[in-house]
Amino acid sequence: MIREVDVAVIGAGPAGLAAATEAAGAGLSVVLLDEQPAPGGQIYRAVEGADAGLMHILGRDYAEGRALVAAFRASPAEYLPGASVWNIGTDRLIDFSRGGAIACLRAASIVAATGALERPCPIPGWTLPGVTTVGALQILLKTSAVVEDDLVLAGAGPLLWLVASQLVAAGAPPRAVVETVPKGRMSAALSRLPGALRSAGYLRKGLGLIAAVRRAGVAVHAHAEALEVEGGAAVTGLRFRAGGREHRIACSAVGLHQGVIPNQQISRLLRCDHVWDAAQHCFRPVLDAHFRTSVPWLHVVGDAGGIGGARAAALQGRIVGLDLAVRAGRPDDGRIGALRAELDRDLAVRPFLEAFYAPDPAILNPADSTIVCRCEEVTAGTVRAAVRLGAPGPNQVKSLIRTGMGPCQGRVCGVAVSTIIAAAQGALPDRADYYRIRPPLKPVPLTELAAYPVIGPEVEAREP
Fold this sequence. Notes:
Elements: E1 4-10, H1 14-25, E2 30-33, H2 52-58, H3 60-74, E3 78-80, E4 84-88, E5 93-98, E6 101-112, E7 116-118, E8 131-133, H4 134-144, E9 151-156, H5 158-169, E10 176-179, H6 185-189, H7 193-196, H8 200-215, E11 219-221, E12 225-231, E13 235-242, E14 245-250, E15 253-258, E16 260-262, H9 265-269, E17 274-277, E18 282-285, E19 298-300, H10 310-327, H11 335-347, H12 350-356, H13 361-364, E20 371-373, E21 378-379, H14 380-388, H15 394-401, H16 414-425, H17 429-432, H18 446-450
Parallel strand pairs: 1-2, 1-6, 2-3, 6-19, 8-15, 9-10, 9-15, 10-11
Antiparallel strand pairs: 4-5, 5-6, 7-16, 12-13, 13-14, 17-18, 20-21
C-alpha cells in the first residue's frame, strides 16, 4: 500500500517550514521532505546549532530562523531529513531516496519550496579551482565556521555585501569587493525608489552593510567590467577594468555573484506553465493568487516561484498552509488577508533592487571562448554555432553538444544557455524556452533503483 497524506512539502527553508507548520497546525496530515540533515534551508542553514559567536557574525536576520524552526519542530508535521526527491508523477506519487533506499508517498497537495539557485557567472576563468559562488562561501561559514583568508568578492547583489560584512565580522575581511553595477544604474532605478520606501528597512540594512565593509578598510572597486579570473592549476588573481584603468588583484580565491534565480526543476518536471520574468532576468512558474501552478495540486512558494527573500518566503508559506486548510474545510480565521498585506509591504523593495542589481550585461552575453556548461565544458561560441545550424532552443542544443547533460542537469547552465540562444535569435528567452526536465531530478544509485518498491497495479506510468 502507498502511504497517503494531505500535504507533502518539499524543502525545509523558510517557505517550506512555514507552510508545513500552518497546514499541520490546522489538522492536515503533513510530511516535509528535505535533503539536508536539519531544517533551515540555505538561508537558515545550521541555525539550531549555531553558537553565540556565529550568531553574532551572521546577524539578526539569520537568528530569525530559529523561531521558524522551533515552531515547525513543535507542530505535528512529520519531518523527513536526508530525503532527496527525484521524481514526482502526474499521479501525485513522490519518489525519494533516504538512508540508501527508495520510498514513495502520495499527497493530495504538493508544496514545492525548493528555493533559489545562484545565477551562473560565466566569465573567463570561472571554472578554475579556487572560484566559487558567494553563496557557497556563506554555507562554509554557517556549517563549518570556515572562511577564506585570501579572497576577492566580485559581482553584484545584496548577498555580495551581506557575505562581505559577515566575513568582516568573522575577522577575515576579503581583499576587495569588485562590484559590477554599471554607471548610470542608480539613475535608471530611481523611479522605483518611492515604492521601495514601504519596506525601507531593507534599504537601511543594505546601506549599513556597505558602510561596515568600507569602515573595515576593504578596497571597493565600483562599476567594474571585463572581469577575468587568472590562474593555471588554481586561481592566482582577478583582472578587471574600473575607473578608466586596468586592475589586477592577486588572490587564491574568488567568490562570484550575480543574484539568484528560482529553482524550477520540480515545476519543469511537471510541465507547469512558465514565463520569462524580464525584471528578474529568469524563468519562473506561472502562479495564481493562491501560489498554485497550472497543475492545480502543485503549489510553489518562496524563491522557487520568484525571488523575494526569506521573509517573503515565510509569509507565502504561511498563506499557502492556511489556504490549504481552508480548502480542506477548516474554518478561515481571517489571517490570510493580513498576511497578504504584510507580504505586499515586504516585496515593495523588489522592483528597485531588481532594477539596480540587474545582472552584468557581460554575464548575460559571454564571449565565445567562455565556458557556459561546466559539466560538459561547452563554450558560449559552441552554443551560438549550434543556433546557426538551426537549433531553435536548449533541448535541440543539448542533443547536438550535450549542454545540460552533466551531473547538475542544467541547474548551473540552464538560464545562461537559454539567454545566449535567445540573444543569437534576436528574441526574448521565453521563445527559446528551457531544458525539458525529466526524472531523476538528482542522481540515484543503481542499487536503489534495482530495489524500487513494488507498489501495485493501481499505479501506472510514472513519467509526467
